[in-house]
Amino acid sequence: MTVETYLSHRSFQSPYLKAREDVGPASILWALLFGPAYYWRKRAPVEGLIYFLLTVPMVGLADIAEAAGLPDGIDIGLALWVFFALAAPPLLARCYERKGWVEVSAREIGDGEAWSEMTETERYDAAIKRHIEGPARR
């Protein structure tokens, strides 16, 4: 994964419900602020549950870790929280790809008509067509 891919804005659309979710650098901020709830809201419940199960119990382990001479549980929890926030763009993108969602982009599609000039239905149809046909042949 390159930095350009990591920091680019990507949109995914469900082929069945026509639901659409955006992934980009702002995902890092929102995941940092809201944690597992953000992943849940973005329709990534598995990632949100893993996030919750790994980070939240660490806060309660501070006394146990201190007694055992291990690093403070809050420090470990904070490190995991920051890791999941920084990993939000690729984790969310993988989640949508795993679910079979179609990535829609601002590139020119098919007949050369600009993506921004298409209606929502035309964008959806073009994205599905591109998904079925595979990578663009140039």
Structure report:
Helix 2 (26-34) packs antiparallel against helix 6 and helix 4 (45-60) packs antiparallel against helix 6 (73-86). This protein has a domain at 27-100. Mean pLDDT is 78; it is low at 107-113. The protein has eight helices and three strands. It has 138 residues and is mainly alpha-helical. The protein has a three-stranded antiparallel sheet with strand order 2-1-3.
Q: Could you name the ranges where pLDDT drops below 50 across 5 or more consecutive residues?
A: 107-113
Gyration radius, to the nearest Å? 19 Å
User: What helical percentage do the residues reach?
Assistant: 55-70%
Strand fraction equals 5-15%
Number of strands: 3
The secondary structure category is: mainly alpha
Q: Please write the string of helix (H) and strand (E) elements.
A: HEEHHHHHHEH
* Largest β sheet strand count, sense and barrel closure: 3 strands, antiparallel
What's the helix count? 8
Instruction: Assign an overall shape.
Output: elongated
The average pLDDT score comes to 78
N→C terminal distance:
23 Å
Side by side, the strands of the main sheet go: 2-1-3
Task: Give structural attributes.
single chain; 138 residues; mainly alpha; three-stranded antiparallel beta sheet; 8 helices; 3 strands; 8% strand; elongated
Give a summary of the structure in a few sentences.
The protein is mainly α and 138 residues long.
